[in-house]
């Protein structure tokens, strides 16, 4: 099990100024998670990710049993025959892979995030916390609220709801309503640094458990999803799927699913991340906050969290998508809206929007792959009035965004949403993974204080550092060494060896 530290009683709060609270970040998080992350540090670039995950202390079978008791998991795998047929109509002869979807809406709160929340609640109870908290504007808040209610724990959700004009997106307000319906207290906050400051202060005052999206417990809770996909595909098709597509935001969805696929032996299944292309919009910008149509599953979260996972609310994030991602597919907002309608009209399933980001990518990918291949979209999510396309498109128009039919490639994030005028217009664009991997290595160096701080101030990377970055970026020593050299990092004798 992980090294447990004194979590405090939540009754002693010091200086409440912004600078003072942010300076106590590490201590607050250590108390709120019961984990001493220092034990996993090397003093240089590398940290022991594998031991962090191993120290969760629950096998995948333990997790499945814990989730079974609260109605989480064992969701159906459904073949989307009519969407597959449409993809084949838009493809060349012999192409048009079969599309399946893991219907995660059947979890208690309506999304796969019940899997993450369930294990955070298990750990909170194990450590004796009387309440749990989470900072999220998405489905995770509802998942934590639902699982906390089952466990008899108090729950507070800190939610980024509004811009400075007190305008909130219908999807966010829908999720706020659901959190409150499930018994949680919701702190409604505006975009910007207020969120994290307020969350830290609340954790300190209450002494609640931080049910972080990025803890090892949360990622372990998703691993059974990957295992189930393999088991169900073998049962239905006699093989593992060739492709699994996971909507990518903070990276935990993809990380946990990919780890589960490996546990189940599906080492040849390709794992694709998928995000909505919102290039040019900053999620920390008050101006840009309401100029997007989805609150998650977009590049505004997917890109920065993939290249700098440790800027999350824990010292070391267990969500490491670049470790597991074979490629990264980007789709347009208009394509996701179109796919939401196609799923409802052709398959009778009203879902979305996050899962339909992956579904749009799957539809595009299917058109390029042989008919005997299988693509699994690994999640759906519940929908509601605020999540419905009509509400979101009406809000976009109110914000001055043009909505029209045409070629989605003409879409400009924050200025227009272009709905495809034919299904053949739905296509996937490939993100530049080499650039993202380079950015990751730069951020990893910065995490320890820059090039001259590597190796405890020597500016020298060890063999352990190099091996760690090879694993983190899914590249090789030559790529890592070249990138580090460009950053001004040298190598120890062991670190300079190129293994063949």
Overview of the structural elements:
By secondary structure, this protein is α/β, with parallel strands linked by helices. Helices cover 43% and strands 13% of the residues. The protein contains 20 helices and 15 strands. Helix 10 crosses helix 11 (252-263) and helix 19 packs across helix 20 (477-486). The protein is globular.
Summarize the structure.
This protein is an alpha/beta fold and 500 residues long. The protein has 20 helices and 15 strands.
Q: Can you give the mean pLDDT?
A: 92
Q: Biggest sheet, strands in spatial order?
A: 1-2-10-7-8-9-13
- Main beta-sheet strand count, sense and barrel state: 7 strands, mixed
* Unreliable parts: 1-9, 495-500
Helix content: 40-55%
Overall 3D form: globular
Count of runs of 4 or more consecutive helical residues: 20
Query: How far apart, in Å, are the first and last alpha carbons?
Result: 36 Å
Provide the gyration radius in Å: 22 Å
Q: What fraction strand? A: 5-15%
DSSP strand count: 15
SSE class: alpha/beta
